[in-house]
Amino acid sequence: MKTVRLTMAQALVRYLTAQKIVIDHEEVPLFGGVFAIFGHGNVTCLGEALEPVRDVLPTWRGQNEQSMALAAIGYTKMKKRRQIMVSLSSIGPGATNMVTAAAVAMANRLPLLVLAGDTFASRIPDPVLQQVERFDDPTISVNDCFKPVVRYWDRISRPEQIIGSLPQAVATMLDPATCGPAFIGLAQDAQAEAYDYPEAFFAETVHRIPRARPDADSIREAVSLLRKAKKPLIIAGGGVHWSLANDAVGAFAEKHNVPVAETINGRTSLVHDHPMNVGPVGINGSTSGNALAREADVILAVGTRLQDFVTASWTLFPESAQIIGLNAARFDAAKHRSLAVVGDALVGIEEMSDALTDWQAPGSWSKKGAKAYGAWNDLIDKNSGPTNAEVPTYAQVVGAINRICDPTDLALTAAGGLPGELCQNWRAKTPATFDCEFGYSCMGYEIAGAWGAKMADPDRDIISMIGDGSYLMMNSDIYSTVLTGHKLIIVVMDNGGFAVINRLQNAKGSKSFNNLIADCKIENLVEVDFEKHAASMGALAETVHSIGELEQAFNRAKQADRTSVIVVKVQSHEWTPGDAWWETGVPEVSTRKEVRAARAEHEEGKGKQRVGV
Fold first, then answer.
1. What sequence ranges are listed for the domain Thiamine pyrophosphate enzyme central (predicted)?
2. Which residues touch 482 (CB under 8 Å, ≥6 apart)?
3. Is the pLDDT of residue 585 over 70?
4. In what order do the strands lie in the sheet with 181-187?
């Protein structure tokens, strides 16, 4: 057996560069690059190994470990889970900064390879810089914090251990059923140790994303249910994007006359004007999508984990409705007494369509969906249309940008009020033009994720829409995009704090408290100059005061040669109306009559929940 003597860090990097994947009949690197912040736990060994291959496996320096891992997530979302970025940190705080991002990837079923330095396997220098000691268990380090939020976890204490560990991590991330983040902790002394590795370990390996075919019996059962349905509804989730099943779902819907509603992660599975599109569904959904969901007798849930914002905390679907769960993950396919059709979304939808032959749902049902969708669009026209208002709403800002953007521009957001406003008001001109991180609803994804998305697809404009709260939480990758030349268009909507949580607080009967900045414990009410702040990081920046000025600024940003930040004040108390219930804790006892009234509404909502068994 031929061997080559390398340090563990050198061997790890060589292995990563040898992994390829087939995309559109072309072999490309599986790992698109490394986001890294170096420290004493990774710079001397992994830094030494990465530097010679920087043209093959580029290393990008982020400004914060969490944000660079979020950028890695934005990258892989744009690549439809077919290429992966590595997020690399030193030990201690650098590592734990990435735990939140790992949770984002875990909740959204996204691949992310997290590598972090660790303490010494020998333990001789203990306690080392940044080591958190457990008095009762010296085997634990802060890297154990990753265990609940990754699909694969390992700690390398001997150089030869990567021979078994790395292939398992890759297999986990590429399997649609187990897809999620992988974490590997790297002991500092083991990184430096040399080993005679088999040359075969570094042979070029070409991966393909498997398309698991559903069990034939489950397809037959699903087809039997659909044939009996009078009011079937497709709910398109994020798995439609990951499986590249957009066209197949649209074709199925048209052939069989079945309306399609979209989840937040499944938004833009279809274009806005697709004849079977009835809008988003759930708490951030449309009156049309929700109306059909409330009447549906068979629900074909494709590639969705059925999060509470989709199901309205399980009050949206009739108790009698039969769910067919078409999903690569058995865990998601089997939820709420669903008929589990475990397999690839594209293959599954095509096989169901073939088996249904020329069956169609009643025309009266699709006509009802089209009529409801027309009424919803009339509402959106009124809600997000042109305005001369001195202070516009979120919806009006979204509508203005949507009207003038290019068909392939990507709208990207995450937490706060914008997920709802974008989900409801963004009209897809082409498929896959919407990215809302709402699986974990992580404030800070908006700019970092947009950086990764732009890196993955430099030929289209990425429009990051962000509230003032998220901006203040994580904005430093504006500087990263200027340094690296990954131009973004960032629209900062300033509503004076965490306005959407203030809305929830008021809706559940409480006074405004600690959400809007004016309602916090403060000595001086100071407004942040977001324009100057962004400009200080090298971005082009301007503040606008009307929708007309916003449109002009957006057109300038389209022509700009670097990241542009547009700041606009928006209303803090006006929102797109919704018609779905969401379960949050409401005090059972309170001196406030408003809280007691909210508790009564809460009890009423609880009585409508579909209980999964």
1. 219-347
2. 537, 538, 539, 562, 563
3. yes
4. 59-60, 31-36, 84-89, 112-118, 181-187, 152-156
Where do we find the tokens 């498929």?
Answer: 431
How many beta carbons lie within 10 A of that of residue 447, not counting itself?
Answer: 30
Tell me the C-alpha distance between 595 and 496, whole Å: 25
Kindly state the tokens that stand for 481.
Answer: 């995009």
- Structural domains of the chain sorted by starting position, each given as residue range(s) with its CATH number in brackets: 3-207 (3.40.50.970), 225-375 (3.40.50.1220), 385-569 (3.40.50.970)
Task: Determine the Cα–Cα distance for residues 309 and 233; give it in Å rounded to an integer.
Answer: 17
Report the C-alpha gap between 474 and 506 in whole angstroms.
27
Cα–Cα distance for residue pair 302/225, rounded to 1 Å:
15
Residue 339: beta bridge partners?
Answer: 324
Backbone angles phi and psi of 16, in degrees to 5: -60, -40
For 200, counting Cβ atoms within 10 Å of its Cβ (0-12 exposed, 13-18 middle, 19+ buried), the class is exposed
Give me the amino acid identity at 147: K
DSSP 442-481: -TTHHHHHHHHHHHH-TTS-EEEEEEHHHHHHS-THHHHH
Q: Taking the alpha carbons of 577, 583, 587, 588 in that order, is the dihedral positive or negative?
A: positive
Average pLDDT over residues 57-84: 98
Find all residues with CB under 8 Å of 573, minimum gap 6, and list them. Answer: 499, 503
Condensed to tens digits (0 to 9), the pLDDT of residues 372-431 reads 999 999 999 999 999 999 999 999 999 999 999 999 999 999 999 999 999 999 999 999
Task: Take residue 563 and report the two structure tokens written for it.
Answer: 């990241």
Query: Is 303:236 a contact under the CB 8 Å cutoff?
Result: yes
Coil/strand/helix, residue 590: coil
Name the phi and psi angles at 594, rounded to 5. Answer: -65, -40
Q: 541: which 2 tokens?
A: 């920046």
Distance CA 18, CA 28 (A): 10
Strand partners, 277: 260
**In angstroms, what CA-CA distances link 445 with 37, 142, 391, 436, 563?**
18, 23, 26, 9, 16
The pair of three-digit structure tokens given for residue 211, joined into one six-digit string: 């398309």
Q: Any alpha helices (H) in 334-459, and if so which ranges?
A: 345-356, 363-384, 394-404, 418-425, 445-456
Give residue for tokens 């399997």. 175
| DSSP symbols for 93-123 | HHHHTTHHHHHHHHHTT--EEEEEEE--TT-
β-partners of residue 280 are: 262
| Residue 613 pLDDT exceeds 60 | no
Under 8 Å between Cβ of 236 and 269: yes
